[in-house]
Write a structure and sequence with these properties.
With about 80 residues, the chain is mainly alpha-helical. It starts with a helix and ends with a helix. It has one domain. The longest helix has 17 residues.
C-alpha cells in the first residue's frame, strides 16, 4: 500500500458502519490492487461507489462523496 492508499484506507475505515469492517477492507484491497496493476479507471470507480457508500455511516456520505469526486479528477 502506498502513502496515498494508506491515507484513504484510514479515512475510509474511520467512517465504516460497525460490523462492516471486513467488507470494507476487502473492497479497499481490491481497489488498491486494481490501482497497482493499472486497471482502476473511472468506470470501475463509478461501479464501486454505491458499494462504498453502503459501508459507511450515513453522516459521512457527503464527506466521502467529496473525496471520491476529487479522486475521480485524478483518473
Amino acid at each position: 500500500m502506498n502513502d496515498g492508499q494508506k491515507k484513504f484506507y484510514t479515512f475510509f475505515m474511520n467512517m465504516v458502519i460497525p460490523g462492516k469492517e471486513n467488507e470494507a477492507k476487502e473492497a479497499l484491497e481490491l481497489s488498491f490492487t486494481k490501482q497497482n496493476n493499472g486497471t482502476f479507471d473511472k468506470a470501475y470507480l463509478e461501479s464501486i461507489m454505491p458499494y462504498y457508500f453502503s459501508l459507511v455511516k450515513p453522516e459521512y456520505h457527503e464527506q466521502l462523496q467529496k473525496a471520491m469526486q476529487h479522486f475521480s479528477t485524478l483518473l
